[in-house]
Amino acid sequence: MSPADGASALSVTGWRCAACDATVDVAQPFPWRCPNATEADRRHLLQVVGAPEPDDEPHGGHSYLDHDRDFAWSAYAAANGLTADARRRLVTELDTAVREVVGVGFAHTPFGRSEALSDELGFGGGGGVWVKDETGGVAGSQKARHLLTILLHLRAAEELGHLTDRPPLAIASCGNAALAAATLARAAAWPLDVYVPTWMSDGFGRRLDALGATTHRCDRRAADPAGDPAMLRFREAVARGAIPFTVQGPENALCLDGGRTIGWEICEQSRAGGAGMLDRAFVQVGGGAFASSLGAGYRERCGTVRLHAVQAAGCAPLARAWERLDGRDDLGAAWADVMTVWDDPHSVADGILDDETYDWIGVVEAMRAGGGDPVVVGERRLIDAHAMAHRAGFDASETGAAGLAGLLAARHEVASTERVAIVMSGVTR
């Protein structure tokens, strides 16, 4: 193995828990959770140690191929002997299989200034609204980005002999994450169990069935603790041996590895398209992995951006935690005090109704780094943003347009010369 293929040539050197400072070696397989996490204490979160250096070079338009040296899954594979060519083959094989299932793969999704939104919102003088459009990507949202690096880690583990059978993948979701998980599982011919709430629509269930997923509707049981019953059943499945194929970092840290690609792409595309450095980004937040990863990825490539985490008034556990923090720096120690379950989540933006913001630490870090803060929006604002997005030509759901709703709510604070990014992620279904 040449030095260029070894772990020493890659930027990720390991994992560290944001709550307890425990470390995990980059060569260890299956670094899903902090080694100190228990069923009684799940308030732990592994984060990548090491980061890509700023990179102004043009690339080929496929983040998973262009930036092999910057992924944790690649560092694990390289540390155990898989060459760069072997890793590239794994990416290409999975990408090809995904294209066979849904007709699109993991090439860069579009990013550019929306003239319609910029005009309607009164931007000018070099400012405007730049949109990262994920609706035409794999499964219609950014969720597949998070899951692909988990699947690549598993495929590398098979190649290395660290995984000799295929336990079922498991996820708790009835929206974009479930659809992305089912798409990737189908492409990899890997069994998938999806744990869903009782109110999941039959039509969406049929879409999951068509992709070969097994769905489990999850009633609340008398002995259940507070929290989402689907998440509780998912955790029970993982305890029985299922693989957490999920977009919550505390359940599987590898989801944050792939999520960074959206921040990398926004940075590269904004430079190439003449936007330069962005001033702000408004990002919808449910479980928080999306905003956490976007903030981290953009910071690695371009530096900080003023990030605003957008939540619905009917479910805003992150905004509540932000107020409770009141400037505290010891985020891990504050976890139990500030991030608590939201009672009765409800909103037309049903994809951001996570009753906990599981990846809240990364979102808070990103907001603090760039001077941002949460934005809470009401139902009328979400409905208006959805209609505005469609007028501008984006087939986004209410969830997918929630970042735009945050910009609408904060528009009076945003100068018309500012360069603002939003992400349309989650198609109308």
Structural account:
The N and C termini lie far apart (48 Å). The chain is 40% helix and 14% strand. The mean pLDDT is 93. It is an alpha/beta fold and 429 residues long.
Keywords:
40% helix, alpha/beta, 13 strands, four-stranded parallel β-sheet, six-stranded mixed β-sheet, 429 residues
Number of extended strands: 13
Q: How much is the average pLDDT?
A: 93
Query: Rg to the nearest angstrom?
Result: 20 Å
Largest sheet: 6 strands, mixed
Proportion of helical residues: 25-40%
Q: What structural class results from the helix and strand content?
A: alpha/beta
Which percent band covers the strand fraction?
Answer: 5-15%
Tally of DSSP helical segments: 15
Spatial order of the strands forming the largest sheet: 4-5-13-10-11-12
Helix-strand blueprint:
Layout: E1 14-17, E2 23-25, E3 46-49, H1 63-66, H2 72-79, H3 84-102, E4 111-113, H4 115-120, E5 128-133, H5 143-160, E6 169-172, H6 176-188, E7 192-197, H7 202-210, E8 214-218, H8 229-239, E9 243-244, H9 254-272, E10 280-284, H10 289-302, E11 306-312, H11 317-325, H12 331-338, H13 360-370, E12 375-377, H14 379-391, H15 402-410, E13 419-424
Parallel strand pairs: 5-13, 6-7, 6-9, 7-8, 10-11, 10-13, 11-12
Antiparallel strand pairs: 1-2, 1-3, 4-5
Helix pairs in contact: 2-5, 3-6, 5-6, 5-9, 9-10, 10-13, 11-12, 14-15
